[in-house]
Amino acid sequence: MNVYKKIQNHPNPALLILRGVRLILSDPKRWTKGSLARTSRGKEVTEVSPSASCFCLEGALFRAEHELKLSNIDRVSARSIIQSVLPKPFGMSIWLFNDSKRTSHKRLLKVIDLAIKEAA
């Protein structure tokens, strides 16, 4: 059985996506605000573009889904888990949280880690 078959048959694909998001955004240089994805030179690109090198939280969800070859249903599940652990001032908006001046990389990772814990 190849690795993608194992991933697709995993009992908790949303957790796999959240772990993928954590890996993607673990380096502050791979995180961006105001765009789903950017190149290393700051140009906006799609989140699945081979030239994308940094992502917002939402873009990292799309990228993890794409890289792991999982479904959009799995991504939506992972997104819902993130929304459930967002700080109250942001309601359910991943975009507002990611792009807020008050959101640091450290705070972003804390939310992702909470989501992983919630999903596990």
Features:
120 residues, single chain, two-stranded antiparallel sheet, mainly alpha
Q: Could you give a short description of this structure?
A:
By secondary structure, this protein is mostly helical. It contains six helices and two strands, in the order ααββαααα.
How would you describe this protein?
InterPro entries: DUF6197 (IPR045677). The protein has helices at residues 3-8, 13-25, 57-68, 72-85, 94-99, 105-119; strands at 37-38, 54-55. The protein is mostly helical. The chain has one domain (3-119). It has a two-stranded antiparallel sheet. It starts with a helix and ends with a helix. The relative contact order is 0.19. The model has no long low-confidence stretch (mean pLDDT 93).
User: How would you describe the shape?
Assistant: globular
Structural class: mainly alpha
* DSSP E strands, number: 2
Count, helices = 6
Succession of helices and strands: HHEEHHHH
User: What does the average pLDDT come to?
Assistant: 93
Helix content, binned percent:
55-70%
Radius of gyration, in Å, reads 14 Å
Q: Cα distance, first to last residue?
A: 24 Å
Question: How do the strands line up in the largest sheet?
Answer: 1-2
Instruction: Give the DSSP E fraction (strand runs of 2 or more residues).
Output: under 5%
Number of domains: 1
- Please mark out the parts with pLDDT under 50 across 5 or more consecutive residues, or reply none: none
- Main sheet summary: 2 strands, antiparallel
InterPro entries: DUF6197
